[in-house]
Amino acid sequence: MSIIQKLDTVKGTVPHYWPIGSFIHHNPLKGFEDLSFKDGLAKAKSIYGGKVYMDSSYFMSLFNEGKIDIELFEKNIAKVLEDKELDIPLEFAKKFLMEVSPKWSSLRIKFLSVQEEINDELYQHLQEQSIYNNEKAWLNNLLKHMTLYEINDALFGGDDKETVEKNIIEYISRFLDEDQTTLTMPNRELGMFEAFKLFENFNYEKDASSFVEDALEELHIKDVESYLTTHLLKLHGWAGFIKYRSEDENYLAQRRHPSTLIEYIAVRLYYELEVTKESKISNFTLLEEYINENLSDSILQLLKRKNILFGPALDALEANEKTCQVLSDHITNELNLDALQIQHSNDVLQSSLSLTELADILHILREEEGYIWLKSLEDSYIRTHVNEFTNPHNESDIQMQASATFCLDVRSEVIRRKIEQSGAYSTFGAGGFLGVPIAFVEFDKAHELFLAPATIKPQNVVFEIPKESHEEYSSKTGMNKTTKKVLNDLKNNPYTPYIMVEAIGWIFGINLFGRTFLPQKTNKLFSKLKPNKPKTTYTLDKLSIEEIEFYVKKLHTKIIESVLTDYSKKIYSESEIDIVRRHLIFNESLSVKVEAKILEKLSEFYHITASDYEYQKKKLAMVGFTLEEKVQYLHTYLNMIGQVNNFPKFVTIIGHGSVSDNNPFESALDCGACGGNISLPNTRTLCMIANTPAVREKIKEQGIFIPDETRFVPGFHITSTDEIKFYDTDILTVEEERAFTKIKEDFNKASSLARQERTKALPYTHSENDIFIKSMDWSETRPEWGLAKNMGVFAGPRSSTKHIELNNRLFLHSYDWNLDNENADILTRIFNGPLVVGEWINLEHYFSTVDNHVYGAGSKVYHNIVSKVGVFNGNYSDLKIGLPSQSVYLEGEAYHEPVRLLTYMEAPLRLVLKAVENSVAKPFILNEWIRPVVIDPEAKKVYSYENGDFVIIKELA
Amino acid sequence: MTLSILMLFLAAGVPYYLILEKAKINSKLIFVLSSLLLMSAIILSQYIPNEHNTVLLSISFASTVYTIYKASKTTNFYKLGYYLIFINAPFFLLFEGRGVMYSVSLLVSLLGIYLIGRFYEKNYASANYHYIRGITLSTPYIGTFLTIYLITLALYPPFPNSLYFLGYVLQVETSLAWYIVIITIFFGNFVLAMKVMRESLFGRPNANIHYVDLNLNEKLMHLGVIVLLLILSFNGLKEILL
Fold this sequence. Notes:
The complex is a heterodimer. Chain A folds into five domains: 136-308, no CATH class; 403-470 and 627-752, no CATH class; 472-532, no CATH class; 543-621; 789-957, no CATH class. Chain A is built from 39 helices and 19 strands. In chain A, helix 20 (323-349) crosses helix 21. A six-stranded mixed beta sheet of chain A has the order 11-10-16-17-18-19, sandwiched between helices. A five-stranded mixed beta sheet of chain A has the order 2-1-7-8-9, with helices on both faces. A four-stranded mixed beta sheet of chain A has the order 4-3-5-6, covered by helices on one side. By secondary structure, chain A is an alpha/beta fold. In chain A, helix 22 (413-421) links the parallel strand 1 (402-407) and strand 2 (425-430). Chain B has one domain. Chain B is built from twelve helices and no strands. Chain B has helices spanning 2-11, 14-23, 27-47, 54-73, 77-87, 89-94, 99-124, 135-138, 140-153, 160-171, 176-201, 216-241. Chain B starts with a helix and ends with a helix. In chain B, 45% of the residues are buried. Classes of the chains: A alpha/beta, B mainly alpha. Chain A binds chain B through residues 105-106, 108-110, 112-113, 304, 307-312, 314-315, 318-319, 853, 892, and chain B through 24, 27, 73-76, 79, 120-128, 130-133, 137, 204, 206, 208-210, 212.
């Protein structure tokens, strides 16, 4: 197996990391989804070492709040006792989990300095069970996932790790920089490893994989896969980002400055070799020899490094006592404490079991308790929700004035409820990108944004173009750009900052003090300086072949003309330029005299080549939609949400995004299904398609009749302030505009009511105005709660959830199973898009909460933006993956309740089974990374998927 | 000269390096003994003229440098406490009359460290802080008090150690020896205090430990130490300003 293949087998342990500008929620343990949830978590714990469940004290507090049903808790304990063949009373296990386990660590440590009698038999038993009997195995366990330089540090007390990691971060952050620095690293186009050779000025003729092989040989590595994993885990944020880049061929920075995981490993190993060749132990054979001669000391030093050695042993080591005696004392101390922990547990439990039996049982219960508590919490919520969803409720039959379809997000639940309460309005929820994946090029921008889930590659490009004069906009934009450039130049010049601070420093003071003390007024002031974007429209129609040819020709001609003028200082005629173009692209003979180096420049640097010609044609062919595509997208969308008849006069489709200040994680608050961007372009595209007469004509043939007077109006929901803004209302007649104004007023009222409801959940927020201030306060670490507390998804008719206050905790996807076919195509689509994104969001929150240090990003307070791709702590650290603590914690306590995604589907079981079978989500559904619940209206039964089977949890009347 | 030798004996850890270290006596006892010896030196200096002798100062300074090295290797609060006494001994000798107040404030801040060591010993079986990280988050009261003591020892204003130190620095004539001693000891104190801060106050709390915070009586005791430090701070400030 080659080194690349070996790396491929282990790289799954590293989670993908998308650049922070388009933060995409993801399951950090995605690489473990082929295992069951329980097994995956156990494996991840053994690799990452972090927590994978909340502590039992956390669950106890939820139990005390009445969130965990005792009956379901007992049922789950009984299941574990049965599975593990534990012959103990249920009450005993329950008492242990509720009374002993929450104070487990205190039972151990608090007796450290108190002499108590230890039960000999128990001590003996614990000793036999422990790893301390086999010092070699113990040592290997301690050495797991340690690099040689870390081992050297631990054994001989150095700080090589600091040097190595600092060097690595310095190099990769500079190499991966995306225009944050003013002085960029040269030679990056050569690739990460080739540029590194020049950076470190070391002479190595072969490529990165050969270097890795040589380095591993020099280090005498026996288990290559394991050592590669060790290195990947050291800075798994950076490794995850490099992995993401290397697997996305469309990532511009990757195309410009290629990097791969093997090159990253090569850089790491280079620095490792550099420090270890100076160390006492320079390879693993020498390490083995050293350890054989100094086994006790090695174990003690490793325990010390890992913070497992208690004070008395540390004191003894400092006093240079004999290491074998120190180790022996340490083991005795550990076993004594373990024994005391069992003995004191028994004081509470009053068990008739022998202490040795008790020790074994408590060990199993401790291993299982996290899952028991988690499942009990989930089951409790499922029971409550199912009862509420299936509770008979009245449906009114009044004609709706308007409908509002919200881009799927938990944060639309409150506003939807408030809109429904404010008039004759019906609401729907539709999967994030509305089933319309587009590559969107915003007006005045040059790059395209993929507005679709990260797993889908859009095939249609949409350009935003102005439909009114934009001179004022252009002039203001130009002025702002010039001002920014001048300021940047002044800042980056070595001399000007000295006078700049004195001369114009006070101008920045306005911003500084204004945004600190008067954020609202300052925001208003600065918004006046921002240019107002002109009214725009989208390019939705396909270009003809002739048009495509014309545009590509025009582009190439312009470039050639500009290059020829710049480099040859001679004016070429149109026909001459065309001859040059045809020569470069079609390899036709060149009858015009042009210097060879200019031709080379045109083809090498400006890519005027046959392949680029084809590429440009292909790209332009992607612009817009064919009529069939438009009809298909609209048909799919309407069927997906079940809005196929009784269209009201106004059908609004509302995307979402968030507004906040000084927040690198802002895109985490935008639409996850749109690749961490706002979903307004998708809604505008869909509305424009739906308003096209030809589309309506064609869709009528497919059984969906949209009345001529019905208008589709796109809107935008700002989740941090709950404001709703509408776009493209210029298509409305004066009369329609008047009617729509009333609707806007009602929606504004609903926004206000939603804000009032949200003030109860947001900390330090007492009024609606506080919510607005949070969105513009640059010191605010929590502009909104975002998706925190998300717990589930409901796919079914709104009538089942309309009467329940779900407090922005469920994704509500509209779905009418009666419209689905026997192959469950609609449900499959929901599984493939919204469910996948929902699972990522849910598990990102889950793991960021259970262990923010390992899976989260830590506190925002210490974050600095690095290379414009992410954040790190202070001036160098690993790239922070996951969510910051402020997104899931409040004053040290978990705000987010980590549960798996409770996935309710109101549909016959046969359709759900079909959709599971057809869906890309099948592995994580069957491996229980979510909790599927089926409300089958046909069979009048409710099923829950547990232990590989759908079991009936409720019979409906 | 004899009196200067006596001062050196009492303040600069001579008994420790000659006898106590080899005798393997409990470090808590050494801390108490060393503090008592320094206290005796402070009292004695009130009755006898204290003029520093360059040779003795050099011996004391050598002891300081060695002790800084030793202190950088320990993670035990008691050991750190008596090492800090020895490290600061040249100040006591060099500052002459003003060294008394500096040493008093040093002793008061070390009383705080002693109380923290005793607390650790009671709750974690040893005054060793190496494995008890992240106390700012886990046990905020003890974290706060320890921060104050360490900042005081690191010679940060407005705490008394820094004020007496500053008062002396501003008012005496300098020499090369003076510069070397002052700078070495200043950075010695600073670096050691920062090292303890980094290794105990910050970092991720140890999951193997059940963290315990101060009870009411303990809080009151520490509050008493803080009050003493405040009184000394006012006095130190007065000395600088007047």
